Amino acid sequence: MLVLGRKPGEYVVIGENIKVKVVKSDKGDLRLAIDAPKDVEITRGEVWEQQSK
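Now predict its structure.
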């Protein structure tokens, strides 16, 4: 697993076509903006864990 520190406005690129950007919310919570092709499935961790059981 790769662990990175990113500040709001910074991003990482996965492969050629997936961009994950850190977005700051009004409440100070961490939020991620994910830009990926429509054929790439994106699932929240808690949902994925429920599906794996």
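The radius of gyration is 13 Å.
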